[in-house]
Design brief:
It is built from 17 helices and 20 strands. It has 523 residues and is α/β, with parallel strands linked by helices. Among the domains are: 219 residues, FAD/NAD(P)-binding domain; 143 residues, no CATH class. Strands 1, 2, 7, 8, 9, 10, 18 and 19 form an eight-stranded mixed β-sheet that branches. Strands 16-12-15-14-13-4-5-20 form an eight-stranded mixed β-sheet. A two-stranded antiparallel sheet has the order 3-6. Helix 12 packs parallel to helix 14 and helix 12 runs antiparallel to helix 15. The longest helix is centred in the C-terminal third of the chain and has 29 residues. It is globular and about 70 Å long. It starts with a strand and ends with a helix.
Length: 523
């Protein structure tokens, strides 16, 4: 049996594991890293993995933190925001209610061709001296104090790999989570059906109404959005890929799934033909590339990082929900915490306090993210609820999570200590808003479609929050104070808007913060 000694063993050579390796090497190119991956490189460009859409934190991580900006601009599609369609209409698609942006705020996000990115990372890391065992599986794991051992089965036999650190990035194989019995229930029930077709689906072609086409500053760019078709208890994603393929997913709560009777691809197409006929027609003759069903996909984790020298990242640890595409955000968050821990440990520092604190930070981020989804799927077909929800969730995401990540405050314990009281204020505000949204979601309302457009680009506070992230020298304490003031002002307005008898009257202060958004939502 062959034996290898290395600094860091990463089990899982997908997006989470390889991006961690690159982040570590960017900060210390003397580290020796060994990656174990069950697939064999190169993988197919349009690989059967979810997580093709990024939002601001994940995109910033890949392009700025990892230095992959040129690759993303050349090989992946720039995302044209998140776009939602509501109602049930027999006629022209312009008759649906639309929630989205007329133009982009500025911080870029991307639609990722996962196989293309992972092949690029594989080549880059190989050139940097990373040892890969692809087509391999961990057959046994022994954990020690800064001495981890993995027995690896691969095409050439067996190799015993020993390292100071072991990071589980092997996704739902959950190597460490299962071994250490760390999985927890989240209380959020979600189910997904997802597939890809070998066809570029252009949602802009679903209506030739000139007014509808001209709602967006660059007509014809809707298809570059992460487009969502919304209904009570479910949403359908449509994500374009650079290869020309299109990714689809139907995500449902238990009630919607039971009502749908979906189990196979044929069932899926029958359901789409009934609920979203234009979507079904757009893909009925396209070649099917893959199809998967995932039930009860949400889970948590008791401990993500250990001072003994093990950690988890990506879906190996926890997973909340795919709405808002947070997967790459949590890769960015976990990998940054792990990088800080390994960096300090390799310098001989005691990391017991940091390991516990970073998990506490992570757990807080995860719980607040989970609250965005829990008990709210019933309202996903409700135009009014979702119009309020998206602006609030963006406000909280850009004003808190993205602020902390873009400024790298999450790795600075002194800053995090100083701002903890204000972070608790934001959590309290978010808890109140999510409770209000959950209460409305129980009604499972679907309002009659009016062909309206709720343009989030015209919400002044969103532009302001996004602009702050463009500043490379963000004063985190000052920015957070200002963002809290915005949140405190908009919560009462949103609470009123969620009422069925809400008035369309707005005052000067509300107009300064939200523009005329209330009018477009309540019209």
């Amino acid at each position: 049996m062959n034996q290898i000694n290395t600094d860091i063993i990463i089990a899982g050579g997908g997006l989470a594991g390889m991006s961690l390796a690159l982040q570590l090497l960017n900060r210390n190119d003397d580290l020796s890293i060994t990656i174990i991956e069950k697939n064999t490189f190169p993988v197919h460009d349009t690989t059967a993995k979810v997580g093709e859409s990024t939002v601001e934190i994940g995109a910033h991580y890949f392009t700025d933190v990892l230095g992959l900006d040129a690759h993303f601009k050349e090989k992946h599609l720039r995302k044209y925001g998140l776009r939602l369609f509501f109602g049930k209409v027999d006629g022209d698609y312009s008759e649906y209610d639309e929630l989205g942006v007329s133009e982009l705020f500025g911080i870029p996000a991307y639609q990722i061709e996962r196989g293309t990115l992972e092949n690029y990372l594989y080549t880059l890391l190989t050139e940097k001296g990373v040892t890969f065992f692809d087509g391999a599986v961990p057959a046994g794991i022994d954990l020690g104090d800064k001495k981890q051992t993995v027995l690896c089965h691969h095409k050439d036999g067996e190799t015993q790999i020993t390292g100071r650190w072991l990071v589980d990035a092997a996704g739902r194989q959950a190597l460490l989570r299962n071994k250490l019995n760390l999985q927890t229930e989240t209380g959020h029930k979600g189910n997904a059906v997802f597939f890809r077709v070998k066809k570029r689906v252009i949602i802009d072609e679903w209506s030739d109404n000139p007014a509808w086409q001209n709602r967006v500053k660059e007509p014809g760019k809707r298809w570059l959005s992460t487009n969502h078709l919304m209904g009570p208890g479910y949403w359908v994603w449509i994500i374009p890929l650079a290869s020309g393929a299109t990714s689809f997913g139907i995500v449902m709560d238990d009630k919607a799934l039971a009502d749908s009777n979906i189990e196979t691809f044929e069932d899926t197409m029958a359901w789409l033909a009934k609920e979203h006929p234009l979507c079904a027609k757009a893909i009925e003759k396209a070649e099917l590339l893959d199809f998967k069903v995932m039930r009860d996909y949400s889970y948590g984790c008791k401990q993500m990082f250990s001072e003994s020298g093990w950690a988890m990242t990506g879906e190996a640890g926890a997973f909340a929900d795919p709405f808002y595409s947070p997967g790459s955000d949590f890769i960015a968050l976990n990998n940054t915490f792990i990088t800080h821990l390994i960096e300090r440990d390799m310098k001989g520092q005691d990391i017991r306090f940091e390991a516990a604190l970073f998990h506490k930070f992570y757990d807080s981020f995860f719980e607040n993210t989970l609250s965005i989804y829990k008990d709210q799927y019933g309202g996903f077909g409700d135009r009014k609820m979702m119009s309020v929800k998206l602006v609030w969730d963006y406000t909280y995401y850009w004003g808190v999570f993205a602020l902390l990540f873009f400024s790298d405050a999450i790795g600075d314990l002194d800053i995090m200590r100083k701002i903890t009281p204000n972070l608790l204020k934001t959590q309290k505000l978010n808890k109140k808003m999510q409770m209000l949204l959950s209460e409305r979601a129980q009604k499972r309302q679907v309002l009659p479609a009016k062909g309206g457009f709720m343009d989030q680009f015209l919400v002044p506070c969103l532009g302001e929050l996004n602009d702050v992230l463009k500043n490379p020298d963000i004063d985190v304490e000052q920015a957070l104070e200002k963002n809290i003031a915005i949140m405190q002002k908009i919560v009462p307005y949103f609470e009123e808007m969620l009422q069925d008898n809400a008035s369309a009257n707005i005052d000067d202060e509300e107009r300064a913060i939200l523009g005329d958004y209330r009018l477009s939502v309540l019209a």
